[in-house]
């Protein structure tokens, strides 16, 4: 007999963990609870789209960074992923703003061309989480954008989002960050984009601290929120997972966060712990400290059921606090 019932706890679909940086043999199942029968009949897990999250330690060496990212993307494709996510600054992390500007390229430059070839070769979509982009106003401003670029499996640019909240902060113990020294804030949000894994809302790193942005993306139809990041080593342990899980729970979206990890150069290190969070707030895949890959299946039926059972978007009171997160552009 098949029991169709209320979902009493999040049904965990295929959850595997792959971190080549670790010594322990990988491909462990993160959550041991069996899937409720009612969910098992709604969709077979191997038909669900698989996404891969890549964790790297970018340095100022662009060619080496490309090699590392390309290896992970090829591995993601071999494992059956339809979409691979790379972190903020996947192209490079420089030692100072002058070097950042020097190493930056336009979207039509050589590096993006290499990623176009890679997407085509592997036949998967790529979220390039934070490209140091020389925009159209480069000649006047001599500043760049922190641009999240989405490529389809033909290597075509299907969307770009330029980070709107710049990280100008001074956290004791972490060293000052002043992104606006080299970077211009993006002018607008980007409507969620249809991909083989679901509708993706684009953001970058520090943007995750602004729930207004995630609400705007969710209200515009996002099913997956993406926060490619290079989180610091002090804010990381304190805030990273809490913020990502909060964004997932309150928007009822999957959250995919590819992260930088380890030491980039003598002055800078990142926290790592890339993860995928499901709309219930469960971390369904995660990397550890080192470079590597983790994978998760995206179950949009589960997302829709959860939104029916817990209809927070129908319970909002914009009459009390305004229509936060509206409109998109
Ligand atoms: O510098 C580059 O090349 C790319 N940009 C970044 O790495 C940015 C600005 S320095 N990092 C963050 O936003 C970290 C946010 C953070 O750590 C937090 O919100 O706690």
Short structural description:
This protein has 329 residues and is α/β, with parallel strands linked by helices. The chain has one domain: Nitrilase/N-carbamoyl-D-aminoacid amidohydrolase.
List its traits.
single chain; 329 residues; alpha/beta; Nitrilase/N-carbamoyl-D-aminoacid amidohydrolase; 9-stranded mixed sheet; 6-stranded mixed sheet; 26% helix; binds N-(4-carboxy-4-oxobutanoyl)-L-cysteinylglycine
How is the CATH topology named?
Answer: Nitrilase/N-carbamoyl-D-aminoacid amidohydrolase
* Proportion of strand residues: 15-25%
Taken in chain order, the helices and strands follow as: EEHEHEHHEHEEEEEEEHEHEEEEEEHH
Q: How far is the N terminus from the C terminus? A: 50 Å
DSSP, total strands: 19
pLDDT averaged over residues: 88
């Amino acid at each position: 007999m098949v029991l169709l019932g209320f979902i009493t706890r999040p049904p965990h679909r295929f959850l595997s963990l792959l971190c080549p940086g670790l010594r322990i043999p990988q491909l462990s199942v993160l959550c041991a609870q069996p899937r409720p029968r009612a969910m098992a009949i709604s969709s077979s897990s191997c038909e669900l789209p698989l996404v891969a999250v890549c964790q790297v330690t970018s340095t100022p060496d662009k060619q080496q960074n490309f090699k590392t990212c390309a290896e992970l993307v090829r591995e993601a494709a071999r494992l059956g992923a339809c979409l691979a996510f790379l972190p903020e600054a996947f192209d490079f992390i420089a030692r100072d703003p002058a070097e950042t500007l020097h190493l930056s390229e336009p979207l039509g430059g050589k590096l993006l061309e290499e990623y176009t070839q890679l997407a085509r070769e592997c036949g998967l979509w790529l979220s390039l989480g934070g490209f140091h982009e020389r925009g159209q106003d480069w000649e006047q401003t001599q500043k760049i954008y922190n641009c999240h670029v989405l490529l389809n499996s033909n290597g075509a640019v299907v969307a770009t989002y330029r980070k709107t909240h710049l990280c100008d902060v001074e956290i004791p113990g972490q060293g000052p960050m002043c992104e606006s020294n080299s970077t211009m804030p993006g002018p607008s949000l980007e409507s969620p984009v249809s991909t083989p894994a679901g509708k993706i809302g684009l953001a970058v790193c520090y943007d995750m601290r602004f729930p207004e942005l995630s609400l705007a993306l969710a209200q515009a139809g996002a099913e997956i929120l993406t926060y490619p990041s290079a989180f610091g080593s002090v804010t990381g342990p304190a805030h990273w997972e809490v913020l990502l899980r909060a964004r997932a729970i309150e928007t009822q979206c999957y959250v995919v966060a590819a992260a930088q990890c380890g030491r980039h150069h003598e002055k800078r290190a990142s926290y790592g712990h890339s993860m995928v969070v499901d709309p219930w707030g469960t971390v369904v895949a995660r990397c550890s400290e080192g470079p590597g890959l983790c994978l998760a299946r995206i179950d949009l039926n589960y997302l829709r059921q959860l939104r029916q059972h817990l209809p927070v978007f129908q319970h909002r009171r914009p009459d009390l606090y305004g229509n936060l997160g509206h409109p998109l552009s």
